[in-house]
Amino acid sequence: MRKSLIITVKEVGEVTVKEVSPFALYRALNATDKAGEMISLISDCVSLPDGKQLQDLWPSEIEQIVDAFVEVNSAFLGIADKLGLRGMLVGLSAIVTQNLPKLFAESYRQVMESMPGTTAGAAS
């Protein structure tokens, strides 16, 4: 049975954090677009209240979700550590962390371009 944990994040609401699928992580590790695949994996493991998206959250809010993710995935992380995969997971985490600002900026640009009467990145 897939483990999950519901946490309450101030200003966000109830967030459900679920156990990661080993196959989804394997797919992310072998993907050409590792950052994009990890974003997809995170989206599968984290359910935010309606109308909220990961890119809307502040670091202090994300930190609470990461803590819950580690708690829910303790068995998987323990197995990965025993198999010597910790370095690979840390490296993958670094790739995602480095690419998140770029991915969020790109999604913001796409939203702004789709809104009538706005220009993406225009200075006044």
From TrEMBL:
It comes from the Bacteria. This is Uncharacterized protein. It comes from Desulfofustis limnaeus.
